[in-house]
Amino acid sequence: MRAALILAFLTVAGTSHAQSVPRLPREQFDVIAPSERVTGARGHIEIVQSGCRVGPTAWARRRIVDIAAQEWGVFGFQTFDMTAEQSRTLPDGVVADAVNPPLEGPRVVRHAVNFGAWESERRMDQTIAGYWSTTPDGLDIVERQNRQWRDGDGDVMWVEPWSAAFVSWVMCEAGLGDMGQFRRDIAHWRYVDQAIEAREGMASDRAYVAYDIGEAELQPGDLVCNPRGGRTYRTLADRREDLGDQAPLHCDIVVRVDTQARTMAVIGGNVVNGVSLTVLPLTVGEGGRLRPLGPNDQAGARTFFAHLSLQADPVEALALDNSPTIRELSGL
């Protein structure tokens, strides 16, 4: 109910920029901020911490939801409701990201409930660098970005998409710090392939197991993935043909599944320049399980080809509502 109230507030807010909320104190919610993993200003950022928490996969589900929710708040609660028919005007300067095609703004984007801080990437240099710090190639990415700032346009935003880095940092802080549990990387395909390998019985210690959309029950803490860049993956079988090959993908973290309203809320990084929440409509699939609507169900809908199911203890379907960030906003 609390999440529904917040979404209603954001709907009323329209295109106004929601205020970013600070991360909770460590004693209230034990998460090391990504900005604390680096030092230095734009053009001179250095990674000082790349280690991750390591714990049992069975405990990770709630922390994944809670950590993602906190970052959503830090980026201004940017929200897109794909269940509604509406339009909003994009501010100037919007660039391409992990989900949307290149935009120069102002443009009209459908389904936008609330825009976050559009200067968030500029304000969040250390935060985004902190996401990169948890990936094997993160140091190279940050050094390349520093050179871009120093030698090129000092006002340029991140030249590399950081959506996979965001997911990697969430898993790192959630306790999936062992690469055998979760293959943190600058690209989504690495951990998607790891989950496919787990489905094939190639390893029993993987945190995620891959399913086709609608094949398994959606739960908070799971991941849903779609192709990008002209890829036409529709099922896991399509990806299996390219297993181990680089591919442009995007994955979001499931944080809320409302079976009565038939909606699902997901949080992803580098979605229109920030950490954003998207509300997706669900329908009943062939197996009787809920699944996101696809292009055959709704024009313009994303094609989700993979559902990565977390091998962890279940939590309540409306887990986002009980996250520390939402409870703090609700005064609970």
How would you portray this structure in words?
With 332 residues, this protein is an alpha+beta fold. It has one domain (2-330). It has nine helices and 13 strands. Strands 3, 6, 7, 8, 9, 10, 11, 12 and 13 form a nine-stranded mixed β-sheet that branches. Strands 1-2 form a two-stranded antiparallel sheet. A hairpin with a 2-residue loop joins β10 and β11. α2 (60-74) packs across α6 (163-174) and α4 crosses α6. The radius of gyration is 19 Å and the shape is globular.
Helix-strand blueprint:
Layout: H1 2-13, E1 38-39, E2 46-47, H2 60-74, E3 78-81, E4 87-89, E5 108-110, E6 112-114, H3 120-123, H4 125-132, H5 138-151, H6 163-174, H7 188-199, E7 208-211, E8 223-227, H8 236-240, E9 249-258, E10 263-271, E11 274-284, E12 290-292, E13 306-310, H9 324-330
Parallel strand pairs: 3-11
Antiparallel strand pairs: 1-2, 3-6, 4-5, 7-13, 8-9, 8-13, 9-10, 10-11, 11-12
User: What is the strand tally?
Assistant: 13
Quickly give the structural class.
alpha+beta
Structure annotation, total helices? 9
Average pLDDT score: 86
- Determine the N-to-C terminus distance: 13 Å
Radius of gyration: 19 Å
H/E element order: HEEHEEEEHHHHHEEHEEEEEH
Helix content: 25-40%
Strand content: 15-25%
Number of domains: 1
Task: Provide the low-confidence segments as ranges.
Answer: 8-17, 103-110
**Shape assignment:** globular
The main sheet comes to: 9 strands, mixed
